[in-house]
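User: Here's a protein and a ligand (zinc ion). What would the complex look like?
Assistant: Let me lay out the input and then the predicted complex.
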Amino acid sequence: MKLETMTWPQAEAYFKEHDTVLIALGSTECHGRHMPLGTDWMIPDKILEVLETMTDVLIAPTVPYGNTDYLSVFPGTVSLGPEVTYQVMYRILDGLRKHGARRFVVLNGHGGNNAPLDRLALDMEEKGCILVPVNWWTLVWDLVPDWNGNTPWHSGHGGAEETAAVMAIDPALIDYDAISDSGLKALSDELPFSSLSTIRFKGVDIPVRRFSRDVTDNGWAGNDHPKYATKEWGEQMIQATAEYTADLIRALQKVKLD
Ligand SMILES: [Zn+2]
C-alpha cells in the first residue's frame, strides 16, 4: 500500500488501525563505470515492490538521495551530506509520526546513511517510536553466507552483489562492456587501499576515509568482481530480503511501545 496512491481519508483510516511505516532510503552516486547512479535507491525500491505483495504495511515514497560526500567527486553523484540526510529523514518520519506512525522500518541501500540513521533512531525512541534499519546488502550475507563474496572486510561497493541486484531490476541497466577491475590506488608503496574506506598495512585493514577519486578511477571496489554477477542471484537476494523484512515487520508489530 503506497502512500502516494492513497487519499488523505485513506491515510487517516490506516493510521487509526496501524502504526507501521516502511520507507526506502538510498543515494544517487557513482557505482563504477558499469552501473547506474541510482543503484542504491533502485534496489531497496525494488525490494519494496516485492514486499508490497507480502504485507499491507504503508509504504512511504523512496528517498533517492543520501550521505555520500566521499563519492561526490564522480560526475552525477549528489550528496546531501550527513546533516541534511538526517534532517530530511527526521522531517519525513516525524511528519508521519504526527499522523500516528510509531514503527519505522527503513530499507537502506547505502552504508553512508548508517550514521544519520543511528542518530535518528535515538530521536525516534525519545518520541515513543522505534526505527529499525534494514541494510539489504549485509543482511543477505547472514541469510546466505556464500553471498558474501568472501570479502572479509565487507567493503563491497559496486561489485558483483549490487550488480546482480540491478540486473534483477533490469539487465539493460548494466553497461557490460564497461566492467573492469576496480583499480584501487595506494597512498604509498607500503599503504595500498583495500577498499573505498580502508588501507591495508601488514595484513590489517585500517579505516581511512578519502575522496574516492584518490582511491579508485573506476568507482567500484571489493573482492566480488562484477563480472560474476547474475540476474538469478540478484532475484534471489531481493526475494530473500523481502521475505525476511516481512517477518521482521510482524515481529516488530508485537513490540510494546510506551
Ligand atoms: Zn551501493
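Summary: The first strand starts at residue 20 and ends at 25.
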